[in-house]
Amino acid sequence: MLGRFTKALVVLSLAVLVGGCSRAPSIDIAGSFLPSWMFCLLGGLGAAGLVHWQLFQRKRQGLVEPVVVFYPSVAVAVACLLWLLFFR
């Protein structure tokens, strides 16, 4: 009986994992299909660069102490926001 339950659990978990493969969001640029997450990542990196530039211009770099955590967090947050706004 335990083997039957385990087999059913494996099949159910595989069905849940494969359910997300219905469509891959991609953008056609000059005949080349690029994943949309690349554009979101570029937007996030650009936003992190703008935040850095603004902090540098205003001489406020000291406000963000763990720089190695702050700028990647800004990039990921903006990339996720762009994904939610434009592709979901």
Question: What this model shows, in words?
Answer:
This protein has 88 residues and is mostly helical. The protein has a domain at 36-88. It is 68% helix and 9% strand. The chain has helices spanning 2-18, 36-57, 67-87, and strands spanning 26-29, 32-35. The chain has a two-stranded antiparallel ribbon. Helix 2 packs across helix 3 (67-87). The chain is elongated and about 65 Å long.
SS field, number of helical segments: 3
Helix proportion range = 55-70%
- Unreliable runs, pLDDT <50, ≥5 residues? none
What string gives the helices and strands in order? HEEHH
Mean pLDDT score, rounded? 84
Describe the sheet with the most strands.
2 strands, antiparallel
Radius of gyration: 21 Å
Strand order, sheet with most strands = 1-2
- Estimate what percentage of residues fall within beta strands: 5-15%
* Overall outline: elongated
**Class from helix and strand fractions:** mainly alpha
Gap from first CA to last CA: 42 Å
Number of strands: 2
